[in-house]
Amino acid sequence: MKENKLFDIGSSENPVFVPSDALNPETDEGREYWEGIATGSVVLPDESLDLLLKMTNENKS
Amino acid sequence: MKINLKFSAPGKLIISGEHAVVYGYPALVTATDKRLVAEKINGKAKISSNIPIGAGMGSSAAFAVAKSALKLGKLDLEEICSLAYKLEKVQHGNPSGVDNTICTYGGYLWYRKESESLKTFKNITPKRRFPKIYLLNTGKPEESTKEMVTHVSDIYRNRKPYYDGVFKEIEKVTKGLLGYLLKDNSSDFGEMIKLNESLLEKLGVVSSSTKSLIRAIEKIGGSAKITGAGGKVSASGIVIVYHSEPERLMKLIKERKLSISSVRIGEEGVRIEK
User: Which residue of A has its CA nearest to B116?
Assistant: First the structure.
């Protein structure tokens, strides 16, 4: 299993780390990460999930 | 060659609650008989596994749990679970704790995100087992799982009262399945699977071809539901299938040239392998 780089999409008071794979949902690793969100394996605060969805949409365009 | 230590951890399967769990509704998760084995041979770690990768069956958590056991060198479940959670945190940032818990303790796990900072976990001691189920792979969905999460988020945002109703119905099914395990009710397992699937279809996470296949299974007296994020364009990933008369199911599978595999659930968590 390869090391996953994490980045912070939260705030200084409440950091929320997500792996770089999250921005590449077409890859197997990205697919697994988002599957984890859909099934409760990964949990993000609502605003962080919204932000991550926005970031991945921008990444795609 | 000297084999020092060998541990294995199970993969997992979500029985009910996918998508709904994101919005604070409960999920019921179980350990399967698909396992990952980690062993130390002459000081080097060797991994082997029959858990499908990227199919939402907890291959990453099984790895974290087996690796933690190997590192600790003993079967201390609490310590293994805690170390595996730390490894999951390094890998995924914000794991809920579901995967490392089910892969460590096995059996069945009830989970709910109560609030941003509070999550409820409960290991279930079943009074009876679920009937035998099968896994049918409808193929890799065309869209990414992220698109499925986006889709549900969008429809939920646009018609919150309606989809809250759908999620509440899913919660009833999840509780019904829990009640079945605890012998608290006389619910019919097959009917609950069927209802669960119909609710997931209301969320729009099941493709036409998968729906058609599931209708065919229902027509011969069986029931089936997708497990995981699903897929709405072509394939929908893995489907849980149940039939009280498996031979009728196998006939249909053969006619349609599909591939199905049996899976045992409620299985043991991390263990020492001889």
Answer: A45
